[in-house]
Specification:
Layout (H helix, E strand, L loop, with lengths): L9 H13 L2 E2 H8 L7 H14 L2 E6 L2 E6 L3 H16 L4 H11 L4 H14 L5
Helix pairs in contact: 2-3
Length: 128
């Protein structure tokens, strides 16, 4: 997708997460995954996918009687744009405030903290 703004809604992001994790999927497969966390009707999922196709967030191909939906946006591109929006809109551009809030608001595992430390060392030019 060209360098355009990716503006998925929260529900669209849920669907994209399913497709990013499972790969190209039918409406039924996507709906089954969504229903693991909250009840979502099949027709609601279908309508969301039709809207997302129109927005260019997903593509649709025909496979027999089924339509298979694939993400038209890369996970990293969507994450980067949404993070930039969050950073500027909520944290006034302060990466420190964003990271401090993220680390302080939920339990972070020792493994995650070690990965974060290693990443910071890389950014500072230290040894990974």
């Amino acid at each position: 997708m060209p360098k355009q703004k990716i503006k998925p809604t929260e529900s669209e992001l849920e669907i994209l997460q399913v497709i990013w994790n499972k790969g190209p999927s039918s409406v039924r497969e996507i709906n089954d995954e969504l229903n693991k966390t909250r009840e979502t009707g099949y027709t609601t999922t279908l309508k969301m996918l039709q809207i997302m196709t129109g927005k260019g967030l997903v593509t649709r191909t025909k496979d027999g009687r089924n339509h298979i939906y694939s993400a038209a946006v890369e996970r990293n591109a969507a994450q980067q744009q949404l993070l930039d929006k969050l950073l500027m809109g909520v944290f006034g551009g302060s990466a420190k405030r964003l990271v401090m809030e993220a680390l302080g608001s939920h339990k972070t595992s020792s493994e995650e903290l070690e990965e974060i430390k290693n990443y910071i060392d890389q950014l500072k030019g230290g040894n990974p």
